[in-house]
Amino acid sequence: MPYSTYLPEHMGSIRLSPAGPFVAGSFAELTLTYTAGTFGIDDTGMVKVSWRTTSDMAKPQFDKPTEPNFTTVEASNGAKLEVWFDRLNIRPWANTILIRVGRGYLRAGDTLTIRMGDRRQGSPGYRLQTSVEKNVELRTSVDAFATYEFCEIEHPAFDLVAGEAASWKAILPSLAVAGEPFRLAIVAEDAWGNPTDKADAVLTLQSSQALRGLPPSVTVKPGKGPRVLEGLVAEAAGDVELKLLASGKEAARANPLRVAARALLRRYWGDLHGQSGETVGMGTAEDYFYYARDAAFVDIVGHQGNDFQITDAFWKRLNELTAEFDMPGKFVCVPGYEWSGNTGMGGDRNVFYRREGRPIHRSSHILVEGRTSTDALYTADKLFDTLKGEDAVVIAHVGGRYADVKYAHDGKLERAVEVHSSWGTFEWILHDAFDMGFRVGVVCHSDDHKGRPGATRPGASTFGAIGGLTCYFMPELTRDALFEALRKRRHYGTTGVRTFVDLRASFDRDVTLFSDDPKLGPAKVTSVREAQMGDIVRPLRAAMTLSAEAIGTAPIERLDVLHGKNVVQTVRPFAAADLGRRVRVLWEGAEYRGRGRETVWQGKLQISGNRIARFAAVNFLNPERKVRETTPGSALAWTSVTTGNRSGIDLWLDDARAGTLTIDTNVVSGTVDLASLADNAVAFDGGGLGRRLSVYRLPEDGWSRRVALEHTVTYGGGGDLPVYVRVTQADGNQAWTSPIYLIE
Predict the structure, then answer these.
(1) Mean pLDDT throughout 651-679?
(2) CB under 8 A, 24+ apart: contacts of 87-93
């Protein structure tokens, strides 16, 4: 009988107790009982229990019985076992407990009892994956003959559900037209950011402007999902600030909403980049699209599975799903895939088609079994050559493999670079494009792996950031309008919040506006005196006045104007006289460009000659990582992760201008004389990729969420001058506009 037909059914069985469901991110004791099959397991044979590569289920430990995640394995016949954990299994099942039977063997019917989170000696249990998922698999495979030839057996699975409500979100459009209806979505989330129906609250709705159809309060009961209030109308133009109050206290504040008298271009939020469990992510593709539409409330979504894991059958299914979910005017869903070439071959690119039914061109077939419809394209330049003539758009992405735009780029196809995702923040990829003279726009998407596009959180995994969002300027919510926005760079990106940003330019005389990048071929030219985000303009000697405005989802720390890589003007919504007892300690940056870019900051600080009245963490994204007060009033310690983004601690001191602050981290350390700390930052270089430790003052309490500026540019020629703005909020979130390109 062929090996493959009889082996699995004779390799034994495994069952899980209790069967679940469990609360995501909670502690539990999972007991797995493996019963040996017909052949038993020979001396030095093995059992492997694996779970998904991107799951943040805790790493098991085997030698601290009173601490979390203590794991034991016992053989019913007393065989000696070697047990360890590693991440060496085949993608997407890297996380693996390995059990080797030594100095003995198992006969048919003998058992191995695996207790993940063994509580018998005081451990609180095993910390489960923090994101909600149906059918979390514990894939089990057996090497019965000690040949290192493993056979997968039928494995247990369980469901993870959301926990109790811990926070609220209120989601509005960023732009509405007076007299036209819009919606408000209210979402309860658990401690790990999962939307939850375990909420019981009466929420008061408080708006700065009268909104027709807005009730004074809403009641949320357990078992109900997000509350959506349709048909709200603002009668007059202006900016709307809307708060949710619970028991008289602010529970959430909606993103800024501007009501305009009219609007040629609307603002739509999208997350074009993520993947589901059919590749390296979690959950099904169908649930992925439902989440984007009905839980994250984005307007636009794409699916970007790794090409080398997408079978022809799954590619066909993806195209069916994008066609099914795409509803012009309500929700845009775009077909595409991630070309996941090795870094040296050009790195990751997101490929989007305007229509279904187009081919997938894989970077390799390494995890695709059997014949496929197309040959592999190993390098990014070959991908671009093959896509010529396609109605497609490509975005350069920084993931496990980073896009090298200096190695390969096609301006007709690759219209944008992704400067932020769950992998971190990557301004350097925009700078690479500037170095090469490429005229690209800025996007931020999530590269979500947890089935949560549009609202992804890092959880407890190595992902170090909240997934990004992009605001697209479009006359209507359709695929055609989206592709036009991408090709004209009419968009800005954020680190996951819906900051309102506006960027416009005016000239003191007529200038030349190009309909497309003239480097790419003939382009229509128009004489204008105004330009907007993404435009390419030949100003000759006309002065450009740049007008920028930002309204944050938190107080704004600074608004920077950049010429290419360089900050040329900074505006803050506060003055030096507003600075007081609040001092911020901020760390940021990454190790390097590649997959292991995460920097783990092990830090402590000490105040002498002063006292810390209170403190607060800034952009600490993992609830398990907290700032610890090691000496009351004078010393703190922490562990934090940055991946190009930023985290920190705010200190409120007894005396604004006294004492010495000493900071010691595993990356960089320094001492600051607080008496001489003025309104500029003191910075310490940490090497790596933009790693830096900064200390500076902020106003003691909340300040303005709005900032605006005007900036005059006189273009002197000598190459492209990309002019754009970067917004930095007090909570650590940022936004970047696509540039206006001034050219000769």
Answers:
(1) 96
(2) 87/53, 89/48, 89/50, 90/367, 91/53, 91/280, 91/309, 91/367, 92/52, 92/53, 92/54, 92/279, 92/280, 92/309, 93/50, 93/51, 93/52, 93/53, 93/139
